[in-house]
Automatic annotation (TrEMBL):
Pfam family, one: Peptidase_M90
GO MF entry, a single one: aminopeptidase activity
Protein's name in the database: Zinc-dependent peptidase
Source organism, top-level taxon: Bacteria
A cellular component annotation (GO) from this entry: cytosol
Taxonomy of the source species: Bacteria, Pseudomonadati, Pseudomonadota, Betaproteobacteria, Burkholderiales
SUPFAM superfamilies linked: Metalloproteases ('zincins'), catalytic domain (SSF55486)
Amino acid sequence: MKPPSRWTRLLQGLPGWVRRWLVRPGLVPPATIPATLWQQTLGRLPWLAGLGPDEQARLRELCARFLAEKEFHGAQGLAVSDAMALAVAAQACLPLLYWGTDALDWYDDFVGIVLHPDEVLAPREALDEAGVLHHWQEPLIGEAMAGGPVMLAWSHVQGDRQAQTEGHNLVIHEFAHKLDLRGKPAGSDANGCPPLPAGFMGLGPGAARQRWQQDWSAAYAEFCQQLELAERFGQPAPWLDPYAAQAPAEFFACACEAYWVARERFALEFPQLAPLLDAFFRRPPR
């Protein structure tokens, strides 16, 4: 990108909450994303090709504001380029595309995004029923923490384009966890039930929540059963990433990534969930 303007340099020196307040439509404008870099980013992310010119312009504006609000850090000596930061921003902002000018408020609980060259080993511990504390290391390619930064393995952000167009997208997966965590009490875990917009599917708040939980619970149970039949008896494996069976929160995140990069296939595999995600993301019919 071109060298930052005086306003941009000032923004970068301010606390995150001040930047979020200032970088709103009509206040301090974020730095413009150069057209060449933007077109290169669109070319590297084939699932964005279906967006119309107005949608691409809206996404570009969201990305500019996102980049002004967030701080990228490279771990283990990784140098984060403008192209890398924009690639993450474009994918993180895609689910917010139809949520209006306050869409980035969904990501206001954190500032930092940490990129690692590859997967990392995270220390874990758990107490079993006998009171024995177990320690182990868990390989991670991404992690989203409530009130904390988002971690991504750059090798998997780049990923295999073919795999991504078939329903895999690490960035959208981790930022779906952020959507899921929105509004939950401190210390709570994601559970696959994000806050629903007012008037969701023409229902009142209670009925909307009930509809969401019933349909997602049924789809999750069916998916887990299909996966078990595939693993034990060699039946055809379900299309969605098997990691989705880990927990309802992972099922929601895997569903979101598949929905955004392969909407038509997702609707075929999960006809009961596609309308729910259409309504949640306020995505207009094609």
